[in-house]
Amino acid sequence: MASRQPQQQNQAQGKVYQFKLVLLGESAVGKSSLVMRFVKDHFDEYRESTIGAAFLARSVQLEDDVTVKFEIWDTAGQERYKSLAPMYYRNANCAVVVYDITQPSSLEKAKAWVNELQRQADPNIVIALAGNKSDLEARRAVPTQTAKEYAEESGLLFFETSAKTDTNVTKLFDEIAKLMPRDQLADSSRGRNKGLNVRGGVDLDHQANANGCAC
User: Fold this and answer.
1) Per-residue pLDDT for 185 more than 80?
2) Residue 61: CB partners within 8 Å, gap ≥ 6?
3) What is the per-residue pLDDT across 5-37, written as a single tens digit (0 to 9) for each?
4) InterPro entries recorded for this chain (predicted)?
5) What residues have CB less than 8 Å from 2, skipping those under 6 apart?
6) Fewer CB under 10 Å: which end of the chain, C or N?
7) Are 98 and 127 in contact (CB under 8 A)?
8) Residue 117 is inside which H or E element, if any?
9) pLDDT over 60 at 84, yes or no
10) Given CA atoms 52, 99, 114, 63 in this order, what sign does their dihedral have?
C-alpha cells in the first residue's frame, strides 16, 4: 500500500518521477475540496468556485522506492471556462473526473468529460472517476453500482470519495500513482521525455544530475 508522506519530507533513496494530473467535472462537485484534502489534508466547508484553474503539487511514496510527484491542475467547472480545459488536459498523464453522488446530472457531465479525454487527450492517459460527497448518503441519487459499471465498461479507475471525511481520497491518488506506466518511467530515466508537461514520467533525479543541482 502506498504511504502518504508529507511533501516536504526527504524522499527515499529511489527514483522521483513527475506527472501531470488534471481534475475535471461540473462546478460544485468538490474537485477543489478533493485536491486540498489530498495536498494539505484540509477541508473548507464553504470554498469559493475556482476561476480558470488552480495549481498544486504533492508526492506519493510507493513501496518500491519510487516517488511519484503529481503536478495537479484543478480546473473550473463553470461552462464559461470549458474552452480552456484542453490547455490543461493536453499532455496530461492522468485525470480525475469528479461527480457528486447527490446530483445525477453531474455524472452525465463527467461522462462527457471522459469521452472528451478519450477522444482528444493522450491515448495512454490514466482516468479515474470519483463519486464525491459520499458522506451525504442520505441524499444519494447516483447508485454506486451504476457508476461502477460505467467505469468498468469505460476502463476507468473508480472510487466514491468524501473530501469532508477524507474517505478514499488518499487511496484514489495512490492507485493512480501505481498505474503510471513503468516502461515510460524507464524511458525518461534514459534521457527521453524531459520537461514538465510530457506524456512520460520525468525522472527528477536524472534532471538534477544533468544540471548539477537538485532544483
Assistant:
1) no
2) 2, 3, 5, 11, 12, 67
3) 333 334 435 788 999 999 999 989 999 999 999
4) P-loop_NTPase, Small_GTP-bd, Small_GTPase
5) 60, 61, 62, 63, 174, 177, 178
6) C
7) no
8) helix 104-120
9) yes
10) positive
pLDDT confidence of residue 134: 98
Judge whether 103 and 25 are in contact, CB under 8 Å: no
Which is it for the CA torsion 174, 179, 182, 187, positive or negative? Answer: negative
Tell me the residue type at 181. P
- What does the DSSP 8-state code read for residue 42? -
Mean pLDDT (whole number) for 167-183: 90
Strands 94-100 and 53-61: unpaired
Q: Count CB-CB contacts under 10 A for residue 43.
A: 17
Q: For CA atoms 62, 66, 67, 72, give the dihedral sign.
A: negative
How confident is the model over 133-148, as a mean pLDDT? Answer: 98
Q: Which amino acid is at 114?
A: V
Q: Decide yes or no: CATH 3.40.50.300 for domain 16-211.
A: yes
Cβ neighbours of residue 187 under 8 Å, at least 6 residues apart?
193, 200
